[in-house]
Amino acid sequence: MENINIEVKEGFYTAIIGSNGSGKTTLIKHFNSLLLPTKGTVTVDGLSTKKDSLEVRKMVGMLFQNPEDQLINSVVEEDIAFGLENLNISSKEIISRVDKILKRLYIGHIAKSNVNMLSAGQKQLVALAGILVMKPKYIVFDEPTTLLDPKNKKNILRIINQLNKKDRITIILVTNIIADLRHADNIIIISDGKIIFNGKKNKLNKKIIKKAGLDA
Asked: What is the pTM of this model?
């Protein structure tokens, strides 16, 4: 990464797009202290990702490209509850939160299922449920549509948009697919570790897209 200077506005839906190897994932791993900057600073609500990493991670949820990377328990409802069980929260509150999220994502029917028996789309929703149950202020989605079929791609993008527009959660969507940008308020394009565009969707043109090595 080189000379990166960006601000993600609270309440906005920001999309970060670039070709494979452009530096997108490296950048977003700095947002919740998975990576720490060797130069400069990264702050979330005024908190340093270096000095206040635990607090930052509570605020910033991250859904990885492959949901299996963050599914821990074998039973769906137990996996969703895992993060809460490490906090000082009553069993009653944990059950209430998990039930609410299961209903919200329409996955109550698989609550008792083994996660290994689920489809890719279902695993993605279970991983997302495990994030939402923690009530984050920000959620970063790292290429969430990559492993999904068209139906599940449409569903996850719809849910992401609802989380922003209805729940007012600040969204950061990482993708290399132009079509995934339809709901974004702001777009950041990365090429070779540098930002080559940062602005509204209506300012984006084919020349910039081509420069980034993307298909329009």
From this structure: 0.90
CA distances from 126 to 35, 39, 78, 122, 146 (A): 25, 36, 10, 6, 16
Write down the domain spans for the chain. 13-211
Phi and psi dihedrals of 169, rounded to 5? -80, 135
Give the architecture (CATH level 2) of 13-211.
3-Layer(aba) Sandwich (3.40)
Q: Average per-residue pLDDT in the chain?
A: 90
In 3D space, the residue among 141, 148, 128, 110 whose CA is nearest the CA of residue 71 turns out to be: 128
Looking at the chain, the whole-number percentage of residues with pLDDT higher than 90 is 53
Among 48, 3, 43, 49, which Cα is nearest to 23's?
3
Query: Could you give the angle at which helices 150-165 and 120-132 cross, rounded to 10 degrees?
Result: 20
Segment 154-162 shows an average pLDDT of 94
Helices 120-132 and 91-104: angle between axes, nearest 10 degrees = 140
Q: Is 79 helix (H, G, I), strand (E, B) or coil?
A: helix
Q: Are 87 and 47 in contact (CB under 8 A)?
A: no
